[in-house]
Amino acid sequence: MRVGQARGGSTKPNRHTVPNVVRGRARTMRKKMTDAGLRPWNELRGHRLMGLSFRRPMPVRAYIVDFACLSKRLIVEVDGTRLAEAEAAGKDVLPARAPEDLGWTVLRFWNDEVLRDMDNLCLHVVTVAGLTAADAARQVRQAESAVPIEVRP
């Protein structure tokens, strides 16, 4: 593959080059998710949250984010003690602005918030994504029409 050429022979240049080390770390994070990471993933995966498609630990340039919705450019970060320790030491947490500088909206939740109140996380994600009650009704209608109903004589 030539430099600047995307996979599959396309002549479109790659928009974001992700170092192999970062890609490998993201793969490892997907295999070893914590309870606070698995709970939101069970709600977000497979278009379960109002049709939004999320990816789990995914590289965004040189940063690995917990969950990302590409269509809405929305990142959900679940932070544990690492965040509190960095704030207490006066350090900048993750280069927190880095994904935002690339046009992403970042939502951060503490581990205990995720484990205690999953509904709040889902509501916040839906609100920030700009989805409405009409969108929810449309999702229900689509789901009902996709499931074949067995009619017995």
Describe, in short, the structure shown.
The chain is an alpha+beta fold and 153 residues long. The chain has a single domain (12-142), classed as Endonuclease, Chain A (3-Layer(aba) Sandwich), CATH 3.40.960. It has helices spanning 20-31, 35-44, 81-88, 97-101, 111-116, 118-129, 133-146, and strands spanning 58-60, 63-65, 67-69, 74-79, 105-110.
Please outline the helices and strands.
Blueprint: H1 20-31, H2 35-44, E1 58-60, E2 63-65, E3 67-69, E4 74-79, H3 81-88, H4 97-101, E5 105-110, H5 111-116, H6 118-129, H7 133-146
Parallel strand pairs: 4-5
Antiparallel strand pairs: 1-2, 3-4
Taken in chain order, the helices and strands follow as HHEEEEHHEHHH
Query: Any idea of the CATH class?
Result: Alpha Beta
> Main sheet, how many strands, which sense, barrel?
3 strands, mixed
Shape: globular
Question: Looking at CATH, which topology would you report?
Answer: Endonuclease, Chain A
| Chain-averaged pLDDT | 74
Indicate the radius of gyration in whole angstroms: 18 Å
Strand content: 5-15%
- Alpha-carbon distance between the two ends: 59 Å
**Number of DSSP strand runs:** 5
Q: Briefly note the structural class of the backbone.
A: alpha+beta
Question: How would you characterize this protein structure?
Answer:
Strand 3 and strand 4 form a beta hairpin. This protein has a single domain, classed as VSR Endonuclease (Endonuclease, Chain A, 3-Layer(aba) Sandwich). The longest helix has 14 residues, at 133-146. It has 153 residues and is of the alpha+beta class. The strands form 2 sheets. It has a 3-stranded mixed β-sheet with strand order 3-4-5. A two-stranded antiparallel sheet has the order 1-2. The chain contains 7 helices and 5 strands. Residues 1-6 and 8-14 have low confidence and may be disordered.
